[in-house]
Design brief:
The chain is α+β, with helices and mostly antiparallel strands. Helix content is 29%, strand content 23%.
Length: 448
């Protein structure tokens, strides 16, 4: 058998982050954090933003359900962000078409709850009226202010704080969002003449919760029974809208005035009627490794945390080959690799050095559980044709195909396999599959 040649991993050209730590565990124990996850529809989901940041940044565990990998999903339009880059704000900027689409989604949710069209219209009109710019209170919650001093784009625009004034009272049609509103105009824009129209409700911003309009504030409330207060608070967005400005000459007649109307783009601060939350989805192997090997994750089913043995049993029922794939995952994680799901390449795992942001995957791994004689019921028997096709697919993606054989003793019983302690007696044999090229082999022989 030919000896495998190790090829160094292929580094990515553009890296936008720094490497922190291999695992989310502090050696000293001072910054240790126990994260929480839930099992929903046979998937392990992490919803807490701090837990998401901890797990992904230190070990690259999981994947954002709305992002390609790192959970950084935002409804903000990149084109509009570049256009209005002079505004120092962390609020998402979207077009009026996208905002109206979310209004329609919220309307459909309210109609599904049995509300008539008149009530739905009143609720949405009350909820989507222009708001004052929210500012942070320091605890992560947002509230709106009666002046734009706290929420204006930055200290460089001194005229904004002087221009942001004025107030008017309004009462919600439903009587739920009542209170005084404060609003004003600010000279914001990519140039110097655009304005940011705003009207706010300080009570709504400070006391935003799911008790007012639950379907509008939190459309997913029925799916998630226990939502974080931060998720229940209203989300503010900046909507790019157009307003018409006419000529100021008094001698122009009405027909000429209509012709002289100029459409001007402004940003209006409104509440997002239909919020979309991003969560971190962990594979079963990643979730069990965080619970069993690192002890930094607690997985709940309903309101009950599951033990290690129970998770081993549940995951084996959800995924029949879970024990085999987890043993391979545990082995490679212990060797310093970052394994990810290899489904898109037809394998079980992909092995990254340090993490996906730094290097491309080096190996595509197929895991098999065999006995001492390398015999057993293989999960995916490979013919020469299927093996050649899989190897060609892997080589075209600049990776190498690896067969990982997990060798268990012949005297190991089913009772021992029912707990993760069986891994103590498992041995691992790695085999790298390479494509034999006849012309290359012949040229090497001719040199001798």
């Amino acid at each position: 058998m030919a000896e495998a040649v190790f090829h160094p991993p292929r580094r990515k050209r553009r890296v936008f982050e720094s490497y922190e730590a291999p695992f989310p565990v502090d050696v000293g124990g001072k910054d240790f954090r126990l994260c929480q996850a839930e099992i929903i529809n046979n998937n392990v989901i992490v919803r807490n933003p701090e837990d998401i940041e901890q797990l992904y940044n230190k070990g690259y565990f999981g994947k954002g359900i709305l992002s390609r990998s790192r959970p950084v999903f935002s409804i903000s339009d990149p084109v509009l962000v570049a256009k209005w880059r002079g505004i120092n704000t962390n609020l998402p900027i979207i077009t009026s078409q996208k905002y109206q689409r979310r209004v329609q989604w919220a309307k459909s949710v309210l109609q599904e709850q049995g509300l008539d069209d008149c009530s739905v219209t009143k609720i949405l009109e009350s909820y989507t009226r222009p708001q004052g710019l929210p500012f942070s209170r320091g605890d992560g919650a947002q509230q709106t202010g009666d002046s734009c001093t706290q929420g204006c784009p930055g200290p460089g625009n001194a005229e904004l704080s002087r221009e942001c004034a004025g107030s008017e009272g309004a009462q919600s049609p439903q009587g739920q969002n009542g209170g005084s509103q404060h609003g004003g105009d600010a000279a914001l824009g990519p140039g110097s003449g655009s304005r940011l129209q705003e009207q706010g409700d300080s009570r709504e911003g400070a006391e935003g919760s799911c008790h007012g309009d639950p379907a509008v504030l939190c459309p997913e409330q029925r799916a998630w029974e226990a939502l974080d207060s931060r998720e229940c608070a209203p989300e503010y967005v900046l909507v790019q809208e157009e307003e018409e400005e006419g000529s100021s000459c008094p001698e122009d007649d009405s027909s000429q005035a209509q012709e002289n109307l100029v459409k001007k783009e402004v940003l209006v601060c409104r509440k997002n009627p239909f919020r979309i939350f991003e969560y971190l989805q962990l594979s079963l192997e990643e979730a069990f490794f965080l619970v069993y090997a690192l002890g930094c994750l607690s997985i709940y089913y309903g309101e009950e945390p599951l033990s290690i043995v129970k998770l081993w049993e549940v995951f084996s029922e959800v995924k029949p080959d879970f024990r085999t794939t987890y043993m391979a995952y545990h082995y490679f994680r212990g060797k310093g690799w970052v394994p990810k799901v290899g489904l898109k390449y037809g394998t079980d795992l992909l092995l990254y050095r340090k993490g996906p942001p730094f290097y491309h995957a080096s190996y595509s791994v197929i895991a098999e559980l065999v006995d001492d004689n390398f015999e057993g019921s293989l999960r995916r028997p490979l013919s020469w044709m299927s093996l050649s096709g899989l190897n060609r697919t892997t080589a075209n993606a600049s990776k190498e195909l690896m067969l990982c054989y997990l060798i268990r003793p012949s005297d190991m019983t089913a009772e021992e396999m029912a707990t993760p302690e069986c891994m103590k007696r498992i041995k691992v044999q790695e085999l790298i599959v390479t494509r034999w090229v006849s012309s290359r082999e012949r040229s090497e022989q001719d040199e001798f």
